[in-house]
C-alpha cells in the first residue's frame, strides 16, 4: 500500500442492485401497479413481520420522516386533546424535531444518558413533572440503533397520560433484552428508516411497526390522504406511501440483511480491538446494529476535533461528528423549541467522532483508519495511545459485495 493514496469514505451506501434482479423488475413493470400498496408493498410488510418481528403489523412508508409525521399526528388525532410539547432528546437527527413541528407541536429537548446515549430517565422524568399536562407525546430515539426500554415509556403513559412514538430510524436489526427485533410487541408506533445510508439500505423508504393492527390500518389511511373509503378523507392525511420500486428494493435488502448485520459486527469488533482506549456508547439489549463506529475523543483535545478531521482527510479518511451540533444548537430549532438542561448532550456532541463503516469495508481498512486515528491523536495529546498488540483478525473468506 506504500505510496498509494487511500480513499476511505465515511459511508458507501450499498442498496441491492436492481440491475441484478431483472426478472423481479420486469414482473413489477408488467403488473401495471407502481404505488398504492401494491404487491411489492404488501409483500415487504408481510416479510418484515415474518423475517424480523415474528408478530405484529407493519406499514411501509416512503421514508421515516413521513412515517414519524403520520405516527405523531395519529396520536394527536386519537386523543383529540390540545397539548403543546413533544418531548425528545436533543442528541438526535433533525427529522425527529421537524416531524413534531409539522404536527404543530413544540419540541421539548431533554438530555441523554452518558453511557447509552439514550434519553436519560432522570431528565425525562424531570421534564414530565415540570411540563405536566402540556406534553402530548414522548419521542424517544434509539440513538445509533441502540435499543430503548419500552417498559419505561409504557410507565410514562400510565403516569403522565402521554403517548409514545419511537424514532427507531437506525434500529432495524437491533435486538432488545429479550433477543427479539427491537420494538417487537409494542403497541406504540415504532418508526424505522431504510434510507440509503442506514444499515438497512434501500434508498428512500421506511416502516412503521405496531402490535395493534387497527392502529396500523388507521395510519395506512392517513398515509394515503386520510381516505378510509375510496376518495373520502375521514382522517388527517398526506401522501406517505412507498413506491413499488422502493418496496422491491427494500424486500431484496431484507433477504440479505442478516449478512449485512454480521459483516458490520465483524468490523465493529476489529475497531474495538484496534482502538481499545477510546470511550464508546454502551450497548443496551442483545444486539446493536453497527451503522458507523462512534468514539469519544479524549476530553483535553476534543476542541481540536475539526483539525483532526482535516488531518484524517489528508490521510484519505472521511469522518464526521454525529450529532454535532445537537438539535437545540441548530438555529431553526433554537427559535421554536424549549430545552431542559443538556450537560451530557453537550459533552457527547463536543467529543464524538464518527468513523467510517460500510458493508464492503475490510478489516484491513478498519486497521488503517484506526492506526491513522491513533497517529493523529498522539500528535495532539502528546500521549502514545497505540495499544501494545493490534491483532488483525483474518478476513473472512467472503466479504460483502466483493469476490473472495
Ligand atoms: C435517518 C434518520 C431519520 C430520517 O430517516 P429518513 O428515512 O431519511 O426520513 C430520522 N431520525 C433519525 C434518528 C435518523 O437517524
Account of the 3D structure:
The protein is α/β, with parallel strands linked by helices and 404 residues long. It folds into 2 domains: 236 residues, Aspartate Aminotransferase, domain 2 (3-Layer(aba) Sandwich); 147 residues, Aspartate Aminotransferase, domain 1 (Alpha-Beta Complex). Helices cover 38% and strands 12% of the residues. Strands 5-4-2-3-12 form a 5-stranded parallel beta sheet, sandwiched between helices. It has a 4-stranded mixed beta sheet with strand order 1-8-7-6, with helices on both faces. The two termini are 19 Å apart. The mean pLDDT is 95. The site of pyridoxal-5'-phosphate has 14 residues, from helix 3 and helix 4.
> How does the major sheet shape up?
5 strands, parallel
The name of the CATH superfamily of the largest domain reads: Type I PLP-dependent aspartate aminotransferase-like (Major domain)
Give the integer mean of the pLDDT values: 95
> By helix and strand content, what is the structural category?
alpha/beta
CATH class of the largest domain: Alpha Beta
Give the tally of structural domains.
2
* Rg estimate, integer Å: 22 Å
Query: Could you tell me which ligands this complex binds, including any ions or cofactors?
Result: pyridoxal-5'-phosphate
Strand order of the largest sheet: 5-4-2-3-12
Order of helices and strands: HHEHEHEHEHEEEEHEEHEHHEHEH
Would you give the CATH topology of the largest domain?
Answer: Aspartate Aminotransferase, domain 2
Strand proportion, as a percent range, falls in 5-15%
User: Based on CA inertia axes, which overall geometry fits?
Assistant: globular
Termini separation (Å)? 19 Å
Low-pLDDT stretches: none
Helix % is 25-40%
Number of helices: 12
CATH-derived architecture of the largest domain: 3-Layer(aba) Sandwich
Amino acid at each position: 500500500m506504500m505510496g498509494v493514496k487511500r480513499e476511505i469514505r465515511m459511508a458507501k451506501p450499498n442498496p441491492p442492485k436492481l440491475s441484478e434482479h431483472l426478472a423481479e423488475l420486469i414482473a413489477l413493470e408488467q403488473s401495471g401497479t407502481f404505488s398504492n400498496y401494491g404487491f411489492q408493498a404488501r409483500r415487504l410488510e408481510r416479510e418484515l413481520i415474518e423475517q424480523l418481528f415474528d408478530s405484529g403489523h407493519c406499514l411501509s412508508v416512503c421514508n421515516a420522516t413521513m412515517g414519524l409525521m403520520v405516527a405523531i399526528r395519529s396520536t394527536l388525532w386519537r386523543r383529540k386533546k390540545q397539548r403543546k410539547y413533544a418531548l425528545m432528546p436533543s442528541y438526535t437527527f433533525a427529522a425527529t424535531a421537524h416531524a413534531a413541528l409539522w404536527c404543530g407541536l413544540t419540541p421539548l429537548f431533554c438530555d441523554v444518558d452518558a453511557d447509552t446515549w439514550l434519553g436519560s430517565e432522570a431528565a425525562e422524568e424531570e421534564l414530565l413533572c415540570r411540563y405536566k399536562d402540556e406534553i402530548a407525546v414522548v419521542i424517544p430515539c434509539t440513538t445509533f440503533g441502540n435499543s430503548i426500554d419500552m417498559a419505561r415509556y409504557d410507565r410514562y403513559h400510565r403516569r403522565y397520560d402521554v403517548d409514545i412514538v419511537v424514532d427507531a430510524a437506525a434500529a432495524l436489526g437491533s435486538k432488545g433484552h429479550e433477543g427479539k427485533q427491537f420494538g417487537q410487541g409494542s403497541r406504540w408506533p415504532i418508526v424505522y428508516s431504510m434510507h440509503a445510508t442506514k444499515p438497512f439500505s434501500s434508498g428512500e423508504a421506511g416502516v412503521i411497526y405496531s402490535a395493534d393492527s387497527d392502529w396500523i390500518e388507521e395510519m395506512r389511511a392517513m398515509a394515503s390522504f386520510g381516505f378510509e373509503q375510496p376518495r373520502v378523507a375521514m382522517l388527517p392525511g398526506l401522501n406517505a406511501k412507498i413506491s413499488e420500486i422502493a418496496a422491491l428494493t427494500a424486500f431484496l435488502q431484507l433477504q440479505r440483511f442478516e449478512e449485512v448485520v454480521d459483516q458490520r459486527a465483524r468490523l465493529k469488533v476489529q475497531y474495538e480491538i484496534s482502538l481499545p482506549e477510546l470511550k464508546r456508547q454502551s450497548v443496551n439489549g442483545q444486539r446493536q446494529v453497527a451503522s458507523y463506529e462512534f468514539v469519544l475523543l479524549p476530553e483535553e483535545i476534543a476542541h481540536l476535533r475539526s483539525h483532526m478531521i482535516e488531518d484524517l482527510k489528508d490521510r484519505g479518511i472521511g469522518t464526521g461528528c454525529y450529532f454535532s451540533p445537537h438539535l437545540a444548537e441548530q438555529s431553526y430549532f433554537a427559535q421554536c423549541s424549549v430545552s431542559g438542561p443538556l450537560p451530557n448532550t453537550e459533552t457527547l456532541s463536543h467529543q464524538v467522532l464518527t468513523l467510517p463503516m460500510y458493508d464492503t469495508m475490510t478489516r484491513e481498512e478498519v486497521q488503517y483508519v484506526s492506526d491513522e486515528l491513533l497517529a493523529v491523536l498522539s500528535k495532539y495529546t502528546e500521549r502514545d495511545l497505540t495499544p501494545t498488540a493490534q491483532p488483525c483478525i483474518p478476513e473472512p473468506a467472503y466479504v460483502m459485495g466483493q469476490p473472495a
